[in-house]
Amino acid sequence: MKNFLKVLLCISIISIFEIKGVKADIGDHVNVTKYELDNVWAYHYRNGEMVTYVNLPFRYANDKLVYCIQPDTRITTSDYIIYDFSRAGYTEESKRQMELISYYGYRYDNHNDLKYYIATQDLIWELYMHDYIKWTIGGEYGEEIDISKEKNEILDLINKHNVLPEFNNSINEGYVNERMEFIDSNNVLNNYDMEYSSDLEVIREDNKLIVIPKKQGEYTINFVHKKNYDSETYLYDNFNTLTQSLAVFGAPTLIDGSMKIKAKTKCEITVFTISGDIKLDSDFEVYDLEGNLIYEGRTTNGEAKFELEYGNYKIKELSVPDGYKLSDSEISLEVNDISCDSRVTFDNEKIIMPVTSTESNLGYLVILFLDVLGYVFVKKTS
Q1: FRET label pair with 344: which of 175, 220, 256, 311, CA 20 to 30 Å apart?
Q2: Backbone dihedral angles phi then psi of residue 331, each to the nearest 5 degrees
Q3: What domains, with CATH codes, occur in the chain?
Q4: Using one digit for the tens of pLDDT, what is the confidence trace for 148-162?
Q5: b/e string for 183-201 if b means 16 or more Cβ within 10 A?
Q6: What is the mean pLDDT of the chain?
């Protein structure tokens, strides 16, 4: 285990000193250098028999990390020539797979330790043959290095290479200063950088995307596939010496996506229902110009507050307390930048009962009572 920790430290030091190499033309000679790691070995078995083994080196051409692509052949020279990768004898699909393995393997996000380098080289070799490669610390019978987790993680990223976030190509409506949440069940959001307007607040929480529009308008959020390095794929070989073929891999073709955000504004509307200085509790409704019911409300102590989007509306009173006349007028309201936070008032007329009618009835009863009383008196005296 101490040896393994020393190896990890060595890897970290090597990574620090990596620099972007100078691009060379095809046909140029290049010197391949190596940084061998003490006591880290790769053993190649075929049909149960060991074919070859090698002390694990990091190899560089023009200061770029190169991978071995011919595991059953030894490296016999440091003098290599740059060729188009088609000279390697691999199909275009195999080339693409190697580019993907290299891209998502060693030096991808959080893939900077020894195991990811070994897993990357191992997966590239599997495209050449399906023999067994054993990685150890301390020789053929030393501690075996388990890279199954790292290989599976790289393969999972490759399988999702052309997968965009679930909400790609979506059109989403929301309101200014209100939180919009999107969950990426495809689990690829972290593979993308995002570009968007400064009028949007965008927060990434693992596979959750939170968007808060700050102004009304239509916006685009672009998903840009992370690009870990910018290079081209080349073959390094020297066919005169029958040395092992090496390769540097450029980034595979990356796909991008986007989503739309339509941010609308809501305005606070206040409805008052009164009768002079008296505040009334009243029911009302709000309709759009097509007659669709938008809102139902009731004033409490003469007042109700609610929100409407920009647009044109009609507000109609439905009921008032007994003793007051229902307003038969519809109030038209246009909600826009100027009329936001509008106030609408229904002033209801009080119903007054005629006093004269009551007095006449009372007088009639008095007269009738006196008439009856007079009739009884007359009757008795007679």
Answers
A1: 175
A2: -95, 120
A3: 2-162+228-248 (no CATH), 171-227+257-264 (2.60.40.10), 266-347 (2.60.40.10)
A4: 999 999 999 999 999
A5: ebeeebbebbebebeeebe
A6: 87
